[in-house]
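Notebook p. 47: complex prediction with PRP.
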Amino acid sequence: MDFKNYIRDIDNFPSPGVGFKDITPLLQDKTAFQEAAKALLKMVDNQKIDKVVGMESRGFFYGPILASELKAGFVPVRKLGKLPAETVAQTYKLEYGTDTLEMHKDSVQKGDRILIHDDVLATGGTAAAVCQLVERLGGSIVQCNFLIELDFLKGIEKLNGYDVRSLLHY
Ligand SMILES: O=P(O)(O)OC[C@H]1O[C@H](OP(=O)(O)OP(=O)(O)O)[C@H](O)[C@@H]1O
Ligand SMILES: Nc1ncnc2[nH]cnc12
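Predicted complex, structure tokens below:
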């Protein structure tokens, strides 16, 4: 299946000069939605995973599905101020601004085998911040797994040393 047929380009969103990859056509198609989940899962290649860590908000579409299929837990990484218990936080830059992400301190135990999942790897600021949070909590990152990688933004350079897999490249 050519998943790219279900990814829509929106120019100048959310700010001038940004070419936004809109995955909602993929999500709303019953076949493409499910086939993409299977393809993301295939990239994990039967590795043992204790927890899938997904970033707010678009990492929440497939992250819990991957967790369920891998018989792993799901850990939400949320934007500042949304998580109710004690957190660790990391501020980072992304393609169109600056933000802070948080994880609950008790969400990852030392030695947990972690799959990080998000929809888009752009400049890599978000994913690098999440890798730092997971490692501060003692987690071991098995793979960083994305639906889309924007190769020209070179996000992979911020994820040196990690196993980075992306289903679609632009
Ligand atoms: O590689 P980067 O340049 O850091 O950009 C990638 C991030 O940007 C988007 O999230 P966004 O912060 O727009 O939030 P959203 O998922 O809530 O829309 C996307 O879902 C990634 O998390
Ligand atoms: N160009 C882009 N399209 C969709 N999500 C993004 N997150 C960061 N850059 C993005």
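Notes: DSSP finds four helices and nine strands in the chain. The two ends are 17 Å apart (CA to CA).
Next step: compare against the earlier run before touching the bench.
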